[in-house]
Protein 1
Amino acid sequence: MEVRSCRNCGKLYNYLGRSTPLCPTCMNVLEEKFQVVKEYIRDNPGANITMVSDATEVSVKIIKQWVREERLSFAEGSGVGLECESCGANILTGRFCANCKSKVQNDLNNIVAQNKPKPVEETRKKDTSAKMRFLDN
Ligand SMILES: [Zn+2]
Ligand SMILES: [Zn+2]
């Protein structure tokens, strides 16, 4: 058994492989806070992260962490103040914007495509269509 000290109250507790380094008491408090924050956002869809933090007395850092974990999401235009970890664009939930998410997906596809030998037929077809376009002009 592994004993750790709670990051919030400093009390020693049995660490059971939790992702959040908190004692069971603080975990419960945090979970209640999560519900409060979630309800507040639902009732105030235009609220930004600072307003939510002020109203619920939960730190911006913790709220952002929940958003990163995609447990919470803010409404469009609420200015949640989260940035894509790749390009810095404003996002509402998670870690990356839609663009970077699809870019990552494309990169994966490209890697797969590059490993395939290019069919000769494909190159010829491209040449023909280029010539035809030239003649049309
Ligand atoms: Zn604690
Ligand atoms: Zn991005």
Note: The mean pLDDT is 82.
Protein 2
Amino acid sequence: MKNNNHFEKGNFKTLVETDGEDRIQDRLNIIDVFLGTEEHVTIEEMCILLSKKGYEYEGEFVRKCMNRMADLGFAQKKQFKDQPIRYEHRHLGRHHDHFICTKCGKIVEFADREMELVQARIAASHGFHMLQHRMEIYGLCSECLAQRKPLIPLALAKPGERVLIKEMAGGKGSLSRLSSMGLRLGDQIEIINNTGKGRIILGHDNMRLAIGRSIAQKIVVSVADKEAPD
Ligand SMILES: [Zn+2]
Ligand SMILES: [Zn+2]
Ligand SMILES: [Zn+2]
């Protein structure tokens, strides 16, 4: 897409000039730097990229300019769960979706024609005419997955994950504590919510359980290979 950048920049210049905007050259520097990155950038990251090129602009001006680019169809504004607002290129006629790593925040793009057709077909079967959609798949990127040890404390398991209870640290007393919650070694549980602080919500059989973080540190689990169905 690099060779297209010159054309996009010219197109943007015409539109902002027609709108009578000020600081045209500054805006062109911003779109230039933006088109030069393939990342999904925050305003802060844009300011860093600009500053590397020797442009020092106020964050507010960069934000306004990026929002203008989004209005005019050069950028797309995205907000993934638990992340700040990001901007990415908007290539006319092309569409992609995203994997988002819940551990390191990495964003990976994918495009799958078959899945696009399936979505349109499902929508149509509900009498729904699909105009646009976004598909975001949250999970662990390949690097984060590779770094993970096979056995982890329950406190580190991620929402959506199914794990097996392998060990209970802390001696006999803690084992009986486990069974008082209706859990046993070898049980499979599903992590419903784990924000990294406070209680962890689990699914076990047809029950939801809330487990304190200190006990969740003691429950050692292995990550099952199978993914959660949703
Ligand atoms: Zn899609
Ligand atoms: Zn990651
Ligand atoms: Zn993207």
Note: Helices lie at 5-18, 24-35, 43-52, 59-71, 113-125, 142-147, 171-180, 213-218.
